[in-house]
Amino acid sequence: MDQKADHTSSAWPIVNGKEHASPSVFQPEALLREARRQKGVPLLDVPQICMLDPDGDVVRHLRRTGAGRLHQGWACYHTELLAFDLEGIGEVGVVGCAVGAPFAVLVAEQLFVSGCRLLISVTSAGQITDSGPPPYFVLIDRALRDEGTSYHYLPPARFAEAPDASLLARVESALTALPGIAVHRGATWTTDAPYRETDTAIASARDAGALAVEMEAAALHAFATAKRRSVVCFAHVTNTMAQTNGDFEKGEADGATATLAVVAAAARSWRSTAER
């Protein structure tokens, strides 16, 4: 075997060679600077509280109802940001359809250098451990790192923990006051390959304590821990991976009504200490 080729391939496995303490040459601020220049986008802060809506249900709901407005200062090449007013919270920003760990963290990096101070992710998820009939939510306190992005931010470990235990506890307490919305706290399994959720992989995730499978939380937790950002992740358990007919039902307004109630509770919990 060619020794040079062998050395090159062995230098870049998913968990090695990451130099977590070293700064990145490519920075989100620089990317957004060039995007603003090319697109003629004004330098305007995004809302302090933003959310990721991977399925796009909240974004579509806001557009249907006329409640969302395009944010003129969001320069991202890949997404649009809608701003809307959430009762008791004020202006919130939402980015839809950023599915998967790399895309979610790319957007998160750009949001936090654009004025965001709290990011809430609510992602559709498949049931791993039976916690009742879907739909319901899981407040994610740790996520199995079965994706690639988290390893660029933190050294190898089985789980990526939620970055702020105190904030998570306040959010959990606030969620108990939501009528008719079931919320559990626990672990999830973050995967890059939803169509490789084999029986063995599902059993392994269940044995590790995962309640659901999703595609972003481990990476968002790792990013938030490494960059000291405020991030809260929810799994919206809506399905049993299409093992029965009638799966993927999310409730009123395709789940947007319940999702916005959960987001409001999390935002209030953060704001209660952030503004002191």
TrEMBL record:
Enzyme class: transferase
Residue ranges occupied by any Nucleoside phosphorylase domain in the UniProt entry: 88-266
Gene Ontology molecular functions: purine-nucleoside phosphorylase activity; uridine phosphorylase activity
Enzyme Commission numbers on file: 2.4.2.3
Top-rank lineage group of the source organism: Bacteria
Transmembrane domains' residue ranges: none
GO BP term, example: purine nucleoside catabolic process
A Pfam short name: PNP_UDP_1
Catalytic activity as recorded in UniProt: uridine + phosphate = alpha-D-ribose 1-phosphate + uracil
InterPro entries reported for this sequence: Nucleoside_phosphorylase_d (IPR000845), Nucleoside_phosphorylase_sf (IPR035994)
GO cellular component terms, semicolon-separated: cytosol
Protein name from the UniProt record: Uridine phosphorylase
Species of origin: Bradyrhizobium niftali
Organism ancestry: Bacteria, Pseudomonadati, Pseudomonadota, Alphaproteobacteria, Hyphomicrobiales
